[in-house]
Design brief:
Rossmann fold; seven-stranded parallel β-sheet; 8 helices; alpha/beta
């Protein structure tokens, strides 16, 4: 049975992708910061998935990352780097961006994904697996207030880009899922109505193309993947 490790899996895109993989009988190792939310998400997946291992913790914590790597085992078919921090809300301009807050965003969105990937490379190599780093249009666009988050995702994009060159037996992807109706997106626009954004489940078919098909490694935009040959 294939195994996937998904960070940030208790809600939003991580939970939606986990549900899709569970329906196809994958073994899942799931991470999120809040144990109650993660346990609820995992319980909903148990009937379909081959196995669900839920480990609550913070991806910036080295001991937690080691727990995740141990749970993944010797072969890992898919690593989904989805856990993210928006940072300060409302989003501040760079002129007033607190540097400690910026360091925290970079630690969660850039450093921790690399650290987890380093631990899991032997298992990924054994399975000739795939790494899927969830990025953002803020990584390439100049949006006021998004400098900290965007910088962290731009750095994640480049880590995925270089990892793909260094590990030719793996498929390494960065994917921009687009705007979604998530708690993080709501935090980015406090007090605004974001009900016009699609639910995360609407993005999953695009992500499944990266999981299931033999697309070359690189950076993708989910909207362009949906139903469009590559």
């Amino acid at each position: 049975m294939p195994t996937a490790l998904i960070t940030g899996a208790s809600r939003g895109l991580g939970r939606a992708l986990a549900a899709s993989l569970a329906a196809d009988g994958w073994r899942l190792v799931l991470d999120a910061r809040t144990a109650a939310d993660l346990d609820a998400a995992a319980a909903a997946l148990v009937p379909g998935a081959a196995e669900v291992v839920a480990i609550a913790g913070d991806v910036t914590d080295a001991d937690h990352r080691r727990q995740l790597a141990a749970a993944a085992g010797d072969r890992l078919d898919l690593l989904v780097l989805n856990a993210s921090s928006l940072g300060t809300s409302p989003l501040p301009p760079l002129a007033r961006y607190d540097l400690d807050a910026l360091r925290a965003v970079l630690e969660t969105n850039t450093v921790a994904p690399l650290a987890l990937t380093q631990l899991l490379l032997p298992a990924l190599r054994a399975a000739r697996g795939r790494v899927l780093a969830v990025s953002s249009d803020a990584a390439v666009g100049a949006y006021s207030g998004w400098g900290g988050y965007g910088a962290s995702k731009a750095a994640l994009d480049q880590l995925a880009n270089v990892l793909g060159a260094e590990e030719p037996d793996l498929r390494v992807y960065a994917v921009d899922p687009g705007d979604m109706r998530t708690a993080m997106h709501q935090d980015a626009f406090p007090g605004e109505d974001i009900s016009d954004r699609p639910e995360p489940a609407a993005v999953v078919p695009a992500l499944r193309r990266l999981v299931d098909e033999d697309l070359p490694g690189g950076r993708y935009v989910a909207a362009e993947l949906a139903g469009v040959p590559v």
